Amino acid sequence: MTLSRRRFLAVTAASVCSGTMAMAQARSHSWSGRAFGSDVSIQLSGPRDQVKLTLDRVIVRMRDIEHLFSLYDPSSHLSRLNRTGRLKSPPPEFLRLMDLCSDMHTATQGVFDPSIQPLWAALAQGKDTSSARRAIGWDRVHVSSGAISLAKHQALTFNGIAQGFATDLVRADLYREGFGQALINIGEYAALGGPFTLSLSDPMHGHLGTRRLTDTAIATSSTTAMSLGKSASHIQHPITNAPALWSTVSVKTDQAAIADATSTAFSVMSRAEIRQALSHLPVGTEVTLVDFNGDIETLS
């Protein structure tokens, strides 16, 4: 890979709007660090002592989630599943993510498919991809509360959804603790309260505009931000060899995990296919498409 991150995240926090948020901003506290192989941050408004205790718990929470889904930690639940082909007694949050992956697989007509990991590995190592493509198939992954089993030669990656899933879990934790204003960035952004103004950019075409979040989430995928091996994009179509159709795709919706998964899948889907997928997504979902000429359009 030519970058250490799984993809270029083109959304960066720009500002908090005026009005009542200006008062909250006076008591706003920020934390930044690393998780899931990328920079993460949390902006949280509340009493300093309460915020400090909460952030300490959030950091532990993120590490626990990362230990479930990391490809790079050999002791993670995902690594154990990929290594042995079977994971007994999967934790509840692992099963929740598997269910969400199935929903996203259906919504995107099979384009979102975590069983694409062998293809990624083959491309990164410069190997022939024929056998890797034959291993792809989410419908051959068997899931029950007792065990998760993979077909022969299969391996999974949650790099297109785990960060969004973690973002949603942390936002839910903050809500349960009574916080009303927070901006969570664990690779994808989710707002608790708001409005928050974010800047959207493309690695080829620069600044594209802004988006506002209030109790919503946003994820952005840029196909030119990372390559596998010498030239292959890190976003691959699991069914065909079709190249990416968009330079950048940004999805704004109510869950960061949904935004994460669909922004990845939509990068290799046609406009008509994306419109069809939108009928399976939450009402109000907005998709921003940037083509390779820098032209922008929004679907909803």
From TrEMBL:
It comes from Phaeobacter gallaeciensis. Pfam families: ApbE. Its cofactor is Mg(2+). Keywords: FAD, Flavoprotein, Magnesium, Metal-binding, Signal, Transferase. The lineage of its organism: Bacteria, Pseudomonadati, Pseudomonadota, Alphaproteobacteria, Rhodobacterales. One of its GO terms (molecular function) is transferase activity. It comes from the Bacteria. Its EC number is 2.7.1.180. This is FAD:protein FMN transferase. It catalyses: L-threonyl-[protein] + FAD = FMN-L-threonyl-[protein] + AMP + H(+). Residues 1-24 form the signal peptide. InterPro entries: ApbE, ApbE-like_sf, TAT_signal.
